[in-house]
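Folds abound. Consider this:
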Amino acid sequence: MLAVALVAALAAAAGIPTKGAYGGQTTADEPHYLITALSLAEDGDLDVSDELAAGRYRPFHEVDLPQQAAPRADGRLIEPHDPLLPALLALPMALGGWVAAKLALALMAGALAALLVWTAVRRFEVPPVPAAVTVGAFAASAPLAAYGSQVYPELPAGLCVAVAIAALTGPLRRGGLAALALAIVALPWLATKYAPVAAVLAAIGLWRLVRAGRGGAALRLGAGLAAAGIAFLAAHRALYGGWTPYASGSHFSADGELSVVGSDPDYLGRSRRLVGLLVDRDFGLAAWQPAWLLAVPALAALARRRPPGWAVLATPLATGWLVATFAALTMQGWWFPGRQLVVVLPAAVLAVAWWAGRTAPRVALTAVAGAAGVLTWAWVAAEGAAGGLAFAVDLSRTTAPLYRLARLVLPDYLHVSTTTWVLHGIWTVAVLALAALAWRREGGAGPLGRGLFVPPRRAGAAPPLGGRRAG
């Protein structure tokens, strides 16, 4: 755990020197999160009007910062972003500025990697070496390493999901219930867009408790989460003037806060993202880390075998993928690729770890594919540190050889052409065929729903979280 955590933290920190754009060390939403963190540290409030007037953002955004907040009647400016990330970064910002804030995120990336190794071994019975190899490969490559140094709520949200998964696949005693509740409550405070994933995790927790005959615990958890939800809505009405932070944004003043999903969404057109989020030439996961393709056979095998705890991985992952497909305004933007999926990628990492840990050839395949992604991230980070590219502007110009090779066979959904649709069809068929092959080779499964959420105890092993042995 410590070794993989160190690798993950160093890989994330490697991205700190790279600029977000050529006009600033950070760009897009990043400086707005940082200026809010500075306001919380110095003034104890979310009003950034004085920080903006004084140009306090200049150390991490050299050019004039575009205003995102709509001015209030009293002159206050409240950035249209949920406040938990700035709250987490307030102390680092006060102590060491933007570098310390990014280092804090890198430490979170290390914590996430360590927790994933622990969960793979203790909850899904993955041998330690395959667990370390799999988690290490994903943690030291894009997009997890990238968002361990970019100021967005994605990495902390992924950590929350990992905590929830570890709790849900355990005995859900007092400590597990507290960890689960904290993770669920934290998710929408990091970003409202994580509310569907939080709701699914809550539903799984309540289902587990009811099935176990723990009605009182289910009632307490449900009541606590309901109260937290009411407090969330009331606080947003008071702080932002709407049900979401987008109500305070100048971009949404004309069409309302719900226009964040699009004023006239084309949901049929967005369906291309079901595959595109994985294989888009510039913004797909596999372009930067080929090992993400292994999630396809892993999830198919997981659904076929249905090992204890499988639904805790599959359900939030599917939810997050659907939100990124149909609710997100776009999958391409001024950010590092994979942003919309980072929150649920810990579930995919654990699925691949479970799949890889079953045979030695799968471990070798995961190591080789993962190494390709690690090398690509190392190349990109070095290139960016040298000033050769900026993460949010011209990342696709990187000379990383494995990425340049992958571009030749991946569809370009940003500039749609006949070639795009041909490649889209080929990759759609390939993904389905790979899933079908993995399903067929995995063999039969046990009864549906058996051990749906809780892994079995091995003979003679102590119960999870230090419970007493039977007998």
